[in-house]
Design goal:
Elements lengths: L2 H4 L2 E2 L5 E4 L4 E6 L2 E6 L4 E6 L2 E6 L4 H22 L2 E8 L4 E5 L2 E5 L6 E3 L5 E6 L4 E6 L2 H12 L11 E4 L16
Length: about 180
């Protein structure tokens, strides 16, 4: 049995949840609105200010989708109430980021700066002299994907630690060449 799937999702007071006949779930909150199509093997019902996720049978796919659907619904509720944030850090001589309108301009050692346009629902903020920046939004998957795409522009390298990394990421450092002994 899925232990995560059994737990109900508590609906905060400012959040409005609608379940449509075609198995579509829509969550509206103070930060925005998210919607998702629920698999036919999974049923979501609303009772007493909670969302309960149930599966129709004990098939392998249904068991797998049970906990997944509950986690996705919970992420939607958290997203429309508090939102999600990924913090990234640029490390290296001359490496920095800056805002140009809504776009993020990244200087990471290439011959030209790279301009990253935020997809709909994503905002960028830059702080600390252009070394630390944030990716904010209500969709957890989209925030993580945009942050990963920016990190992929110049992943941190193990010898000097230069590149773009997550704020809480630990880079395993390698020793460089050993000097010649006389």
């Amino acid at each position: 049995m899925s232990r995560i799937g059994k737990q109900p999702v508590i609906i905060p007071p400012k959040v409005e949840v609608t379940l449509e006949a075609d198995n579509r779930l829509t969550v509206k909150g103070p930060k925005g609105q998210l919607s998702m199509q629920v698999h036919p093997a999974i049923k979501v019902r609303k009772e007493d200010g909670k969302l309960i996720v149930e599966r129709s049978d004990d098939e392998r796919q249904s068991r797998a989708l049970h906990g997944l659907t509950r986690a996705l619904v919970n992420n939607m509720v958290i997203g429309v109430t508090t939102g999600y944030r990924r913090t990234l850090q640029v490390e290296g001589t001359g490496y920095r980021v800056e805002m140009k309108g809504k776009n993020l301009v990244v200087y990471v050692g290439y011959s030209h700066p790279i301009e990253v346009a935020p997809p709909e629902g994503i905002t960028f903020t830059v702080e600390e002299r252009g070394v630390v920046f944030h990716v904010d939004g209500i969709d957890k998957q989209l925030v993580g994907q945009v942050a990963a795409n920016i990190r992929a522009l110049r992943p941190p390298e193990p010898y000097h630690g230069k590149g773009i990394r997550y704020k809480d990421e630990v880079i395993r450092r390698k020793a460089g060449k050993a000097g010649k002994k006389k």
